[in-house]
UniProtKB/TrEMBL annotation:
Protein family (similarity comment): Belongs to the SusD family.
Source organism per UniProt: Sanguibacteroides justesenii
Family matches, as InterPro entries: SusD-like_N, SusD_RagB_dom, TPR-like_helical_dom_sf
SusD-like N-terminal domain sequence ranges: 104-238
Boundaries of every RagB/SusD domain copy: 357-654
Xref: Pfam families: SusD-like_3 (PF14322), SusD_RagB (PF07980)
Keyword Signal: yes
Subcellular location: Cell outer membrane
Keyword set, alphabetical order: Cell outer membrane, Membrane, Signal
Major subcellular location class: membrane
One Gene Ontology term, aspect cellular component: cell outer membrane
Protein name per UniProt: Glycan metabolism protein
Length: 654
């Protein structure tokens, strides 16, 4: 892979120009013709396009959507973690704190330059894709069918790149063909086009690709990182879901947002038929996907039903191009993410100490409270769950929770009788956390003891800005694997683990949301896909949960508005910490309501339950700098200098 990426980077260095719309200089045409004479060099080009795209998006650090919302909380040292050139390794935190800027934008995928000094912008990748599409037919030692497949794979990745640009910038410049350097400047300075045209172009490219793409079952194993028919169909449904969502469908924020010639770039009139189009596309994708994909549901070697369900949830996120749930997956390009999530023990704790771990990146209190009760209901909607006393201590006596919650031991009420996804994804004080199965030590299923001075607890007397510290008293299990011993975790990583770009659970949730927004009243087209996700999560189906005696609001599942809240919470839970909430809050147009809230946590300097849990009066404010300005922050800024060079209009507010 490194060899192939090097080849493409070299080619792009030869041909890239400062303006993202420029085509290859004429003097290099012979080089391109040579590259597209033989299958091997053409393959290098194709692999490189995918490799560079994944390097930008399969990195939890570079991809701001992972930490740029309100799912994570961390210490100041990690927020300011940067290299010698001042580039932040996790710039999403700067965005969540309202520090985005047009002079040198974070998440600048429009063009190279800016504070992140990106070499490979998405428009460079589009240009490379166009070169491939225009030249692949010239390769002499390939079958026509293989040429069609490869061209389809590039059309699909081009559609994917367009999609990533649109959800960042809204209306974009479309580049159906590269523009020669000898063209007039007026032709090079292409305008941004209406956002509906952008989405329609994405769908058209995918439709052109779908007919020639193999399914995940029929394709050769070496095509696993590339778009399959199922992946293209799912991306089509996802793009149409975005097109139907409030940010892009009749958004009054952008009534005055016009192109450089005065043409409108957004429609201010909502079109409900867009939801139907998305729903039908999701139905088509589901029909195709269910021939070869399924939700991960294979854990059967643990000591209880709850532990097996937790195993399914855990391994729904693990793959080496082998998980039947993953529809599109790319190799991690930030394998070190686990270092900041797993706990840092004292060096004297020889059984578990690992010097590369920092333990400073935590799930937020908002996400801790997001997960359902054991009955599949929000914690404030379950009659049997003591919401008003959730910050008091209690005990668990039910053996169903053995090895998950210590029995007959004081534990915070907030951590009791929660759904399996909570226990699979969140490590909380006084709960069990399995950290390896093949260690020489018997007690690998540790109890998280988080008070100051305890095994997981703070090693400092104060919370400082220059130390790696867990500042809220929770740890993230998701994205790590319980079978790997913590003191040798780095040695267990195979370096070929993949990150889910699209997984089947997301497609089911797209299907449920789209049908709910289109139908006047929800029916089985809404409930059925939602229930598939809930079944694997180990909770009752949605109607059973809400119509049961446990529910405070049994009529909620009967209305579009009620189901909208339910579906959105299901999305927030199932896809938590996967980079989805960042985009969903924006497309739902509620980011300004959620991303200006203070972040809460426990007093990590407390040495007793009473001290740690703030005298049982509730969590304390641990971060108050979150800032989201509407409508400005709903779209990324284009770098100010690039606006002057290319002549495109800037996004509103920037």
């Amino acid at each position: 892979m490194k060899h192939l990426l090097y080849i493409l980077c070299t080619v792009m260095l030869l041909f890239a120009c400062s303006d993202y719309l420029n085509m290859t200089p004429e003097k290099d045409i012979d080089t391109i013709e040579t590259i597209f004479e033989q299958r091997t060099s053409a393959s290098d080009w194709l692999v490189g396009i995918y490799g560079l795209t994944s390097s930008l998006l399969a990195s939890i650090g570079e991809n701001v959507s992972y930490v740029g919302s309100d799912e994570f909380i961390t210490c100041e040292r990690f927020r300011n973690f940067s290299n010698l050139n001042g580039k932040y390794y996790y710039p999403g935190f700067k965005i969540s704190d309202g520090q985005q800027m047009s002079q040198a934008p974070y998440d600048n995928l429009w063009e190279e330059g800016g504070i992140e000094d990106r070499f490979n912008s998405f428009y460079e990748l589009i240009r490379s894709s166009n070169i491939f599409i225009g030249n692949i037919d010239n390769v002499y030692n390939m079958l026509a069918s293989e040429k069609r497949q490869w061209k389809a794979e590039v059309k699909a990745i081009k559609a994917f790149i367009y999609f990533e640009l649109v959800r960042r910038y809204g209306p974009i410049v479309l580049v159906p063909d590269n523009i020669g350097v000898d063209e007039d400047m007026s032709k090079m300075q292409q305008p941004r086009v209406h956002v509906d045209t952008c989405f329609n172009t994405i769908v058209r490219l995918l439709d052109e690709a779908i007919q020639y793409l193999p399914t995940s079952i029929t394709r050769d194993s070496d095509r696993a990182p590339f778009f399959s028919k199922e992946a293209a169909l799912t991306l089509k449904a996802k793009a149409l879901l975005y097109a139907a969502s409030p940010l892009f469908n009749g958004n009054e924020y952008y009534s005055d947002f016009k192109g450089k010639n005065g043409e409108p770039l957004f429609s201010t009139q909502k079109d409900p038929e867009k939801w139907k189009r998305a729903a039908e596309a999701a139905d088509e994708a589901v029909r195709e996907c269910e021939h070869g994909h399924r939700l991960y549901n294979e854990t059967n070697n643990r000591n209880s039903h709850l532990l097996n369900t937790m195993g399914d949830i855990e391994f729904s996120m693990y793959s080496t191009f082998s998980n039947p749930e993953f529809i599109l997956e790319w190799k991690y390009t930030s394998e070190g993410f686990y270092k900041f999530c797993l706990p840092r023990f004292r060096s004297s704790d020889l059984q578990y100490f690992n010097e590369v771990l920092y333990g400073c990146l935590s799930p937020s209190m908002k996400m801790v409270e997001m997960y359902y009760t054991e009955h599949g209901l929000p914690i404030d909607a379950d009659n049997t769950w003591n919401y008003n006393s959730r910050y008091q201590m209690s005990k668990e006596a039910n053996s169903l929770y053995k090895n998950v919650v210590p029995l007959n031991t004081e534990v915070l009420q907030l951590h009791l009788r929660r759904e399996p996804r909570f226990y699979a994804c969140i490590a909380a004080d006084r709960l069990h956390w399995q950290l390896g199965t093949n260690t020489p030590y018997v007690n690998y299923n540790l109890i998280v003891k988080a008070y100051k001075g305890e095994q997981f607890g703070s090693q400092y007397d104060i919370v400082t800005s220059n130390s790696w510290q867990n500042i809220n008293g929770y740890w993230l299990k998701k994205h790590s694997y319980s079978n790997w011993a913590i003191n040798t975790y780095h040695n267990n990583i195979k370096r070929n683990e993949t990150l889910p770009i699209i997984r089947l659970a997301e497609l089911y949730l797209i299907q449920a949301e789209a049908w709910n927004e289109y139908l006047e009243k929800p029916d089985n087209r809404v409930y059925a896909p939602l229930n598939k996700v809930r079944k694997r999560a180990g909770i009752p189906d949605v109607v059973t949960s809400w119509k049961s005696s446990y529910s405070k609001n049994p009529d909620k599942v009967d209305s579009r508005e009620g189901m909208r809240e339910i579906i959105r919470q299901e999305i927030n839970i199932e896809l938590a910490f996967e980079g989805h909430r960042y985009w969903n809050l924006r497309r739902w147009k509620i980011a300004h309501e959620k991303l200006n809230e203070k972040q809460y946590g426990w007093n990590v300097l407390g040495e007793t339950a009473r001290g740690f849990y703030n005298n049982f009066e509730g969590p304390v404010v641990i971060w108050n700098k979150c800032k989201f300005t509407a409508p400005r922050d709903y779209l990324n800024p284009i770098r100010a200098e690039q606006v002057l060079i290319s002549g495109v209009v800037q996004n509103p507010g920037w």
